[in-house]
Each structure stands twice: as C-alpha cells, then as structure tokens.
Amino acid sequence: MRSKFLFLKRIWIFSFLYRVYFASSYFNKKYWQIFKWGFTSNEATNFTYNLTDENLLYLAHTVALVLNKKPEEIKMYIDELNNDLELKNHIVTVTANSSLKKYADKQVHFAKRLGWYAFARAMKPELIVETGVDKGLGSVVLCSALLRNKAEGFEGKYIGTDINPKAGYLLQSKYATVGKIMYGDSIESLKTIGDKIDLFINDSDHSAEYEYQEYKTIKEKITGKTILLGDNSHVTDKLALFALEEKRKFVFFKESPKDHWYPGAGIGISFS
Question: What is the distance between the alpha carbons of residues 82 and 110, in angstroms, rounded to a whole number?
Fold first, then answer.
C-alpha cells in the first residue's frame, strides 16, 4: 500500500492535488469559524477574542522577560483580569445602554489587552497614555489595573486620546476616577502632556507615518523605565525602527486567537 502511494506521488497531477489538499488543511477550519462568527458576532472592526492557553503562557513569559519579573507573577495578573467579573459586568452593562451596542458582542474578551494589563500591574506606573481608545475597552482595562495598584499603595493615572468625541464611552463609574480622555488630534494632545510617561500604548491612526510621529512626539517624555507598546506592530515596523534609533530594545508578541477566524495582531514592545 505504501509503495503504491509513493508511486502516485511521483505522478505530477496526484502530487499537485495532494500538496494542495495538505496546504488547505491549515485553513479549512477557518472557513467554519468565519461562518459561525457571521451568525454569532456583531463586530465589524476591532475584533475581540480569547487567546489560546499556549499563547497566554507565551505572553506571560514575554512580559516577564521585558520587566525582569517571574512568569508566575505575570500569569497571576493575566488570570486576575480574565476573572474580573466586576469589570466584565461593567463592560456588558454600559455597552447594552450604548447607541453602538449593535456593533458589540455580549461576551467580553481582552486578547492582547491582557498583556497591557499585566504591564500596568507589574510596573505600577504613575502615568499611562493610550492613543486611540475607540469604545474604551483598553481604557477600562488599564484603569482597572491602576485601581488595583492604588489599593496596594501605588498611585497612577490614565490619559487616553481620540479624535472621535464619542469614543471612550466605557470609561465611566469608578474607572473614570483614575482616567480621562483628551479629544482631538492625538499628536496635538500628546504635546500638551507635561509629565513623564511610564507606559505608552499606540493604537490611534494606523498609518505608519502617523504612528512614527507619535513616538517622535513623546521622545522627550520617556525615560529609561518607560515601556512603549505598539498595537500596529504586526503591520508596520515603526516602533522597531524608533527603538533602533533611540538605542532601545524591541520584541514582538504574536497573538493566537482561540476559536476565531482572525489570524491575530500582537504587541510590539520597546524597552531599555
């Protein structure tokens, strides 16, 4: 039987069909996930999903390596956010009362924001800045971390920026006590920030040049302890180039979504 199979593989048409079948097997599951997602999800952009268990472990190790922490501590923070029912209920409730509820799903997934949260919890930053907040999912995730830090005796604040005056509607209730959103052009908003930035997340206009200009704008507001996170680093190399110019280090964490058709984005990380 094996010899017959090997013989057929020598015939070009059979070899071609076998190779095409084998290659397509990597994607066939995605077609089912797309079909299921079309019926079960309302999202049209900024897709949310869970990450695989293996991917979460890699995320914990990546953050731990950057911050010189133990992976067990970072994993504890990741689990802390995943199990934060109060935050999840807040997101579901506020979304249900929003005019944009038809574009959101009822289940809450954090994906790469688990990494943002872990950085915020482990660093105990005094100032977090995120550009491009959209509905404010990252905002409340980061403010939740700041509130937990505050309960442990570490004060900190969050500033988000967005050009859309309706953005950030999730930043309400207790989460708004440690954070605010500045509306208008993100680069112009960044220029007005006088304090040093401990944790910076770029997630605004996803053009490569605009992203690079954000990093240039905050150049004098960062220190050797500042962590820069690029939400668009799976598409552009601007954070990596900025890190090279400023003699900083750079690593990239790639998402592996669980049971979702989207191939995943990731986190570009620049650190000293």
Answer: 8
